[in-house]
Specification:
nine-stranded mixed β-sheet; nine-stranded antiparallel β-sheet
Length: about 1450
């Protein structure tokens, strides 16, 4: 459908070669030198695009014939290819090939059993049904393609020298396309002109990746400063770019100008098909990729098709049926030879050929073998494949329409992209999950920060978040919010603006194949990452006063506020404001970008501002460090030292500007803020002017910030809370409003965007006052700390201060990580003019090259981002999604192993793991961080030895008649409920490279939770593949970002979360949900139902076909193994196609063995699917044996009843056919667990259809099957009482054993599923109590039972107070004690503290022992850390301290 390579270039290459003139020698580094001897474009690597104008008319004409057009075709078939291609695909199934073989051999006269045309009917019916389904689906895609291709756009016509309206499918590569605001882009277009004065075009990519925030695209350099409208005829450049690929974030190439110079461009200048133009009146670009070669189409894979585990098992069982068929046919062939060999002369029914010759016995036996294959062909259930597809479509429909899996806020239902693995949802054993955006909301909220070694805890903001509930968008709730009283304690509050906060986009579903509208309205798009909880930040009082001093005390620096501290705070917030790609828009028009100042500047003269910044510069603004607080002072309130601050009255401002005052405490500060007391005294008039605002009564303009990530939005909102406001951003300038009201416009020289390899972002700006060139950088602490300038180069006093700041900052980072916050370090660097010019030349040359461009750009970034000065760090909270802890706890009870694979730092990930109950406070958590193979292997051995000691593995036994029989099938280890494992990316590299995978996996089998931190996307997929291939388990991967795609694709079932990181994870997934909590019902309920339904249906089809075929086989013993049939062939064909097909299909879609409520309350029921209890070799063998028994009953009861009678063969066959039909349908009735009206109607109609068809067919079939015809047989049978008696007694005898077994199972409750079915029938109150006893018994199983059925993880049971009055009948003594402890819990806190102190001593002892020199590995430093035997199940010791031990 979509091309992944530019195959057209190979055809073009044979038509002509493109001469390339040697490129002019540029001032370049040796790394960038080009190959001047190269005479041709390398068409294997590049795409060459000629503009469609008069100058390149010849070349563009050839290109239009070679490159793909812009018309798309997502259909699989055409009118000519539909029949052959569809048949070719269907005959990939071996069952279809088998039945085609039977059709062919039945055409030979010697082997003919049925009429030739009749034999073709089953195969033709199956092929026709699937072909109709495939054709209907493909026709829908065809109509959708036609709709998309008929969209209109304006393209340049060189003959008319103007833009004319064309359909999308008429656009070609090289065409100039003119786009209007709010128009959808028809192809991948290189941006050449924008009506924006700065050459900027804004895109909304919701149709492509689901992100609602705007993206900036820049006109190719050299075209951005156009004063006149773009003229296509004057465009004389040749475009050379990379071949089509599906990477949405990568695009590189260059323009060859007439003067032989090259202009480089990247994905910042590419407009992708499917995006929408915003904020720009007119844009013009040239098409570089069209139609199926666009990145959007290359990413459109459509629904995924996989082979489920049941289908794989199904193929094995079909091979068994083939073997069984071979045995039956061989028996028939041998029986035929033996029977005929007993006659001295050939019997009359053996017919010779034309010449009177008889077949040789061997050849006759071979022919009979083939004849028996045709007769017993029903043994292979061809209709089963069609039934499975229909059932899965029904299951997908029910899942898709489950309202519990629908996100009303975002208008997102569940998406089932893979249609044939629904039953795999009920067999998952391992879940691999991302953290950010998957377990958390990806709503980044600013929480804390540290500046120059001093930590600001933002306790007021933390209190707000604890009780915060996001506001509804309706007027009533907003009015209530406006009327909220101020916080107690005199806390400073921001006056609320009358403008409502813009909520997140309510419906941002992506359309990948096309777009429903050619133009979309900008007013309907909302601002991403702008919910109230993300925007509102309550400032920290201490930092607030320091910021005020930084703005008010620049001229007369006091002893309480040093210049260095002032510079650090100013630089810190400037970095937060400048170092991003946030787009600024107004609240009244959220899609109208702000490019000019909307506020009046302060009354300060430029000379005064220049003087202030010169003083800061002399005070080492760029290289400032101040003394830091000790770690014990973290989070303390404001000191009582005297501090000068400013107060004023600007609306929505923490910085009123009418007075400066000297305060002695926090209370005085708040008091003066509230009263506005004028305490200037005799201050310098210039200081008053600095703090004053030219127009204090003017309202501050409300801005909306559209960020590409929630982290950026959170930091910009935090800076704005301290009045460092981002006012506007263009491609060349950024305007910031300082706290005193001054507007500063920084020249934006370069922007190095964030990428997953560098893990940082930088901007290069020129300060408007000092004219310094400053680099502001933010990124992961693990990266930034290694890029800081060496403190040894400074003098001794400064070196001491630098090291102290770094140590304090690192302590604060560790504190943030332990609190589960996402950390970012902020740093800066001042460049000289010469250094900047050298680097800029290097960067420009790297951007103009194609070969090794990524490596060159990485090298330039690394060259710039070195010798940085640390400013501070931030801690951002990513809140847990609703229902995550309950979902993870339920999965643990369900026996599902859970791994978290995240790129976050270890401390943050571990804290989140505790918050979401992935790790328990009682767990012993082993943390392994090492890069040495020997050390890693030694630690794995020691840890594995220790956990094996604590592992209580008991051999399962079967109790038969009081005799215990050993059964050693389950030799795998079960997870220890008190052990967790944490490793980092370095350790994973060591494990993979050092071939330690087996030891690592063995250790993980004893751990109930595994946490892998600092993982790259490649490592995530490698971990999933390792577990999947080595342990042979069913895996599920779930994530929400592009970095999770490889993990999702590697797992058996991939789940994408349509969150705030785009739709790439959804595009690569099998199922897409909007929240992690939806996974609970998807697996525990729908997964269980789908597996149970489909497994039972497959077994039923095998049972049904074997039963029916066996009756034909038993008849061969009474007809000389002649291959004859006692049942009419029309009856045989319709038996499977119509009479017995609908009830099992309905059961496969609608049946429920256990209710959804019970499945959710008892997650351990999910283990039946993990253990394949419904469909496995044992149940298959039981079904086959039952089929043999029932076939014997259905054949021999009518046979014995008609013995010595004179009935004909078809009368005998009709009786057998009737009783077998009733037996098979009543068997289905016994298997149905939840009866609905549809079940009853289906079974009754199937029986009625059989009798109606048989009556009509026997009445009209006078000469259908000469010489013996089934004429009037059914009518005669209706007149016999024996027929009714046989039709009643035979099904009863046949089904009696199965009914007795089911009754015994229900009486003795032999399995958890049967117990759960019994619970569903109880009254609600009794059901509640029984479920509590069940859960409690499972929790205490290790204490009460000597032979546990299954290992059960920890689970908490909350009991009402009234339950204490109930009796504990059926519970053993430890269970009663446990229940009593849960009802009346006391004294836990003291024991908790004592155990914690004791284990701290144990941990300290372990560390000292491990650190002792000369101690051998056999010392077993972990001895005693793990709980032993069953005693540990009742302990609640706190083992969090052990998790801090890094091995």
């Amino acid at each position: 459908m979509a091309l992944s390579v530019d195959s057209a270039l190979y055809r073009w290459q044979s038509q002509w070669s493109i001469e390339e003139v040697s490129r002019t020698q540029l001032e370049s580094t040796p790394l960038l030198s080009s190959d001047e001897d190269r005479q041709k474009y390398d068409l294997d690597k590049w795409r060459v695009v000629f503009p469609s104008n008069d100058r390149f008319q010849k070349e563009s004409g050839k290109v239009s014939q070679v490159y793909s057009g812009n018309g798309i075709r997502t259909t699989k078939y055409t009118l000519l290819t539909f029949i052959p291609q569809n048949l070719f695909e269907q005959f990939h199934r071996l069952a279809n090939v088998y039945f085609l073989f039977l059709v062919v051999i039945n055409w030979f006269p010697q082997l003919e059993v049925f009429h030739r045309e009749i034999t073709m009917l089953p195969l033709a019916a199956v092929l026709l049904v699937i072909a109709i389904k495939d054709g209907a689906e493909d026709y829908k895609r065809y109509r959708f393609d036609q709709q998309i291709n008929s969209y209109k756009t304006k393209a340049y016509d060189k003959s008319k020298t103007t833009y004319i309206e064309k359909c999308w499918e008429e656009v070609q590569v090289g065409d100039f396309v003119q786009l209007q605001c709010n128009e959808i882009i028809p192809a991948d277009i290189l941006l050449l002109y924008s009506s924006d004065q700065n050459g900027i075009c804004h895109l909304e990519t919701a149709n492509l990746d689901g992100e609602t925030n705007l993206k900036q695209r820049q006109v190719v350099k050299g075209f951005s400063n156009q004063n006149t409208e773009f003229e296509p005829e004057r465009f004389q450049n040749i475009i050379v770019c990379e071949k089509p690929n599906n990477d949405l974030n990568r695009f590189k190439g260059y323009m060859k100008q007439p003067d032989l110079t090259q202009i480089g461009f990247n994905n910042e200048s590419l407009l992708l098909r499917g995006c929408t133009v915003r904020n720009t009146e007119v844009t013009v670009g040239i098409v570089v990729y069209a139609g199926p070669e666009t990145k959007a189409m290359l990413n459109n894979r459509g629904p995924r098709y996989k082979r489920s585990k049941i289908e794989q098992r199904l193929n094995v069982d079909i091979l068994f049926c083939v073997g069984l068929l071979f045995v039956m046919c061989l028996t028939g062939a041998l029986g035929h030879g033996i029977w005929n060999g007993n006659f001295l002369e050939y019997p009359l029914y053996v017919i010779p050929d034309i010449n009177g010759n008889y077949l040789a016995p061997a050849l006759a036996g071979f022919y009979m073998f083939l004849t028996m294959i045709i007769l017993l062909q029903v043994l292979i259930p061809i209709s089963l494949y069609v039934s499975i597809e229909l059932v899965k479509l029904g299951q997908v429909f029910l899942i898709h329409n489950d309202t519990d899996l629908y996100n009303e806020e975002q208008d997102l239902p569940i998406q089932c992209r893979a249609l044939n693995i629904t039953e795999d949802l009920g067999q998952i054993q391992y879940i691999f999950s991302d953290k950010t955006g998957t377990l958390t909301e990806n709503k980044m909220v600013f929480r804390r920060c540290t500046i120059n070694g001093k930590e600001f805890s933002h306790q007021e903001n933390a209190k707000r978040l604890e009780t915060y509930k996001e506001l509804d968008s309706d007027t009533e709730d907003w009015a209530k919010y406006l009327s909220l009283p101020p916080n107690k304690g005199g806390e400073i509050l921001t006056q609320t603006s009358t403008v409502k906060p813009l909520r997140r986009c309510q419906s941002a579903r992506a359309r990948f194949q096309g777009h429903a509208r050619q133009r979309s309205l900008g007013s309907q798009s909302q601002v991403a990452f702008s919910s109230t909880i993300e925007k509102d930040v309550t400032p920290d009082n201490r930092l607030l006063m320091k910021v005020r001093n930084a703005s008010c005390q620049l001229e007369s620096l006091t002893q309480f506020m040093s210049t260095k501290t002032t510079a650090s705070i100013t630089d810190f917030f400037l970095a937060l404001t400048l170092c991003n790609t946030v787009v600024v828009s107004t609240a009244t028009d959220p899609r109208q970008r702000v490019t000019t100042s909307l506020m009046k500047p302060s009354g300060l003269s430029l000379e005064k501002i220049h003087q202030l910044f010169q003083r800061l510069k002399l005070a080492s603004l760029s290289q400032s460090f101040s003394s830091t607080q000790s770690s014990s002072d973290l989070g303390e309130s404001l000191n009582t030292e005297s501090t000068r601050v400013c107060a004023g009255s600007e609306t929505k401002d923490y910085f009123p500007a009418q007075s400066c005052s000297t305060l002695s405490d926090d209370y005085s500060f708040r008091r003066d803020l509230a009263t506005g007391t004028d305490t200037f005294g005799d201050s310098d008039p210039s200081l008053v002017e600095i703090c004053g605002i030219a127009n204090p009564g003017a309202l501050q303009e409300e801005f909306c910030y559209e960020a590409e990530s929630p982290d950026e939005a959170a930091l910009v909102h935090a800076a704005r809370a301290y009045q460092f406001t981002l006012v506007s951003r263009t491609a060349e300038q950024v305007t910031v409003r300082l706290p005193e009201g001054t507007l500063l416009t920084f020249d934006l020289l370069f922007t190095l965007k964030f990428d997953s390899n560098r893990k940082r972002m930088s901007v290069v700006v020129r300060h408007p006052i000092t004219r310094e060139i400053i680099v502001y950088t933010k990124g992961a602490d693990s990266v930034i700390m290694d890029l800081l300038e060496d403190p040894a180069r400074a003098n001794m006093a400064m070196e001491k201060k630098i090291r102290k700041v770094r140590d304090q900052t690192q302590k604060h980072l560790d504190l943030y990580a332990r609190d589960g916050l996402r950390t970012l370090c902020i740093a800066k660097k001042v460049l000289s003019e010469d250094d900047f010019q050298k680097w800029a030349n290097f960067r420009c040359e790297a951007e103009t090259t194609i070969d090794n461009r990524d490596e060159l750009l990485m090298e330039t970034a690394q060259h710039l981002e070195t010798k940085l000065t640390l400013l501070g760090a931030t801690g951002i909270e990513d809140r847990l999604q609703d229902g995550v802890p309950d979902t993870i706890a339920a999965f643990r009870e369900a026996g599902i192993q859970q791994w978290v694979l995240t790129g976050d730092k270890q401390e943050t990930a571990v804290n989140i793991a505790y918050s979401c109950k992935l790790l328990d406070q009682r767990d012993t958590v082993f943390t392994i961080n090492t890069e040495s193979k020997e050390t890693c292997e030694s630690l794995l051995d020691i840890t594995l030895e220790e956990v094996k000691k604590a592992q209580n593995v008991q051999e399962a036994t079967w109790n038969v008649l009081g005799i215990k029989l050993p059964f050693s099938l389950s030799a795998t280890a079960t997870p220890n409920p008190f052990t967790g494992l944490v490793v980092d990316g370095r350790t994973l590299n060591t494990i993979f490279q050092g071939q330690l995978e087996n030891k690592f996996l063995e250790l993980t089998k004893y751990s109930r939770s595994v946490l892998c931190c600092r993982c790259t996307p490649l490592q995530k997929s490698m971990v999933v593949k390792l577990v999947q291939s080595r342990l042979k388990v069913m895996t599920l991967a779930i994530g929400d970002g592009a970095n999770d795609v490889s993990m999702i694709q590697a797992a058996d079932v991939g789940i994408g979360i349509s969150g705030q990181e785009g739709m790439q994870a959804v595009m690569a997934s099998d199922f897409a949900i909007s929240q992690f909590k939806h996974l609970k019902k998807l697996l525990l309920v729908h997964g269980h139902w789908c597996y149970s339904r489909l497994g039972k249906m497959v077994l039923y089809f095998f049972y049904k076909n074997v039963t029916y075929v066996n009756m034909l086989f038993w008849y061969q013993f009474f007809c000389a193994f002649s291959g004859a049939s006692m049942i009419d062939y029309w009856q045989m064909i319709f038996f499977n196609l119509f009479f017995t097909s609908v009830p099992p299909i309905l059961s496969g879609v609608l049946d429920k063995d256990v209710s959804a409520v019970t499945l959710l309350r008892l997650p351990e029921l999910y283990k039946s699917g993990q253990n394949s209890e419904v469909y496995k070799p044992l149940t298959f063998c039981v079904a086959i044996l039952d089929a043999f028994y029932q076939s014997l009953i259905c054949f021999f009861v009518p046979y014995l009843a008609s013995l010595h009678s004179d009935i004909d063969v078809f009368t005998f066959g009709t009786t057998i056919n009737t009783v077998s039909l009733l037996t098979i349908l009543f068997h289905q009735a016994l298997e149905i667990q939840t009866w609905t009206l549809f079940h009853g109607i289906a079974i009754i109609l199937s029986i009625l259809l059989y009798f109606i068809f048989s009556t009509i067919y026997n009445a009209v079939c006078v000469d259908c099957n000469h010489p013996s015809n089934p004429y009037w047989i059914m009518e005669l049978e209706f007149s016999k009482a024996s027929f009714y008696f046989i039709s009643i007694i035979t099904p009863v005898i046949a089904l009696l054993p199965r009914y007795l077994i089911l009754a015994l199972q229900g009486t003795f409750k032999v399995s958890p599923i049967v117990k759960a079915q019994h619970l569903d029938k109880l009254p609600k109150e009794q059901q509640e109590w029984e479920i509590r006893k069940w859960r409690l018994r499972e929790q205490g199983r290790g204490v009460c039972n000597d032979e546990p059925d299954q290992p059960i993880g920890n689970m908490g049971v909350s009991m009402p107070d009234s339950a204490a009055e109930r009796t504990f009948q059926g519970l053993c003594l430890p269970e009663q004690e446990t229940l009593q402890n849960q009802i009346s819990s006391n004294g836990e806190g003291n024991d908790y503290t004592k155990r914690w102190v004791q284990e701290e001593d144990v941990s300290a002892g372990f560390l000292s022992a491990a650190a002792s020199p000369g101690q051998s590995a056999s010392a077993k430093p972990f001895s005693g850390l793990l709980p032993n035997s069953t005693e540990s199940s009742t302990r609640s010791s706190h083992r969090r301290s052990v998790s801090a031990v890094t091995l």
